[in-house]
Amino acid sequence: MHPYNGLIEKYRERLPVADDTPVVSLNEGATPLIELRNLPRLAGKNVRIFGKFEGLNPTGSFKDRGMTMAVSKALEAGARAIICASTGNTSAAAAAYAARAGIACFVLIPEGKIALGKLSQAMMHGSVVIQIRGNFDDGMRLVQEVAKTMPVNIVNSINPYRIQGQKTIAFEVIEALGDAPDYHALPVGNAGNITAHWIGYSEAVCTDTRACALCQGRCGYHKTKLATRRPVMLGYQASGAAPILRGRPVENPETVATAIRIGNPVSWQQALAAQQESGGWFGECTDGEILRAQKMLAQTEGIFCEPASAISIAGLLKDLELGKIGEGSTIVCTLTGHGLKDPDTAIAQSVKPLTVEAELDAIEDVIRGHLPPS
Ligand code: AN7
Predict the structure, then answer these.
(1) How much is the average pLDDT of 179-201?
(2) Which of 114, 193, 345 has the most ligand 1 atoms within 8 A of CB, as the residue to mutate?
(3) What are the tens digits of pLDDT across the range 115-161?
(4) CB atoms near residue 27 (< 10 Å)
(5) What residues does 106 pair with on adjacent strands?
């Protein structure tokens, strides 16, 4: 029996780590790929849909995959402190991994615009939380400027090690399905994750070390081919924060899915490349569509993901409806973060609890009123 010790140990050969790299891990990765059996039926389509539930990572989002790499490499380089701008999840992951590594962590977040659970994580892990009177894009710009003058290591996804860690999701999907799916749908905010997915899938089909069309031999991880093909990539943005669909930065992005409230993604060009090379597309969903999908997933599949994550389901359902995805297809949706991150949004859209006297009659009345027909 080999215990699971996190994704760096598992995929060491495929990651840029040395034998003496100090590995900072919380046993992230190895998240479940859950078949969503009710959604195809409700959509009336003959397809198989799987949710890769990244909410089950140690800090509750996919960011842990990138952060184990970024913080390990920061430590290897002798860093005393890391810094990031964040819509919430990156700050939670950075705070936790910095705590484990024993280094300082500074996080810049848009004041009043990050979900409560994420804020509580950054605070509880002891990072220095700096709320800015601005949005994520302002924070991202400031982080890049301040890193020129202060001894802080940036752990946003412009840090290439973040992307390297995050690419492992593709390897796990391939292992679970035996090959790549036909389609892979995911939310797009700063666009690091779609970039990472595509790198992972691309490395998985690549074995030619000398003349590899994908990496010209740079990646060096060609020992075993993991998959025979790559999926079509589907990237979804919130209508109020859809710079890639608009073709220009969005100055004041707005959406209930605060995780992807981003107007000028850092990995814009890489995301476009992933879409084009895979023959995929970008789509947008309204806040209403996002929340409906979040609730549908929670109430028909038992999976509670955060609003930003639900956009992969919302977008997929629309594209299924439009007939853009063929019958018989296998689709994976990355459910990027846990619903518990954002209790306010969940409570606001749910049926309020009933309050009754502590008496048997009262409870029986409620049950009678709510039992499904026999
Ligand atoms: C749940 O935490 O950008 O396109 O600062 O938290 O790789 O940015 C979060 C992004 C999707 C978008 N789903 O991924 C941050 C941050 C969730 C997220 C995204 C985020 P990218």
Answers:
(1) 97
(2) 193
(3) 999 999 999 999 999 999 999 999 999 999 999 999 999 999 999 99
(4) 15
(5) 83, 128
Residues 6+ apart with CB under 8 A from 196: 65, 66, 157, 162, 163, 164, 165, 166, 167, 169, 170
CA of 251 to the centre of ligand 1 (A): 18
- Full-model pTM: 0.95
Testing ligand 1's pocket by substitution, the residue of 56, 87, 136, 306 carrying the most ligand atoms inside 8 A of its CB is 87
Q: In Å, how far from its chain's centre is CA 124?
A: 22
Q: Which of 137, 59, 146, 135 is nearest to 98 (CA)?
A: 59
Share of the chain above pLDDT 70, in %: 95
Amino acid sitting at position 342: D
- Which residues contact ligand 1 via a Cβ below 6 A? 61, 86-90, 157, 187-193, 259-260, 306, 308-309, 336-337
Task: Give the pLDDT score at 222.
Answer: 54
Mean pLDDT of 338-343: 98
Sign of CA dihedral 41, 44, 46, 47: negative
Q: How far is the CA of 190 from the centre of ligand 1 (A)?
A: 6
Residue nearest to ligand 1 atom 11, measured at CA: 187
